Amino acid sequence: MMQTTIKVEGMTCDHCKKAVTGALKELDGVQDVQVDLNTGKVDVSTNKEVSKEAMADAIEDQGYDVVS
């Protein structure tokens, strides 16, 4: 299991959390997603290699900004 943390701006509510979680879970290999609205951090657990670019694209497609 691999863990990736992504910093995201623009998430403010439960809807944001669901949109980001849903988009990431559609990526092949993503097992779990934990979103912390207070810190803007998204922790992604994967069972195989998933590029950070693919994760960032999925998040940005939902209208949020990936900052790191």
Automatic annotation (TrEMBL):
GO terms for molecular function: copper ion binding. Gene3D superfamilies: 3.30.70.100. Residues 2-67 form the HMA domain. It comes from the Bacteria. Signal peptide: none annotated. GO terms for cellular component: cytoplasm. The keyword Chaperone applies. GO terms for biological process: copper ion transport. The keyword Ribonucleoprotein does not apply. It is found in: Cytoplasm. Keywords: Chaperone, Copper, Cytoplasm, Metal-binding. InterPro entries: CopZ, Cu-bd, Heavy-metal-associated_CS, HMA_Cu_ion-bd, HMA_dom, HMA_dom_sf. This is Copper chaperone CopZ. It comes from Halobacillus alkaliphilus. The lineage of its organism: Bacteria, Bacillati, Bacillota, Bacilli, Bacillales.
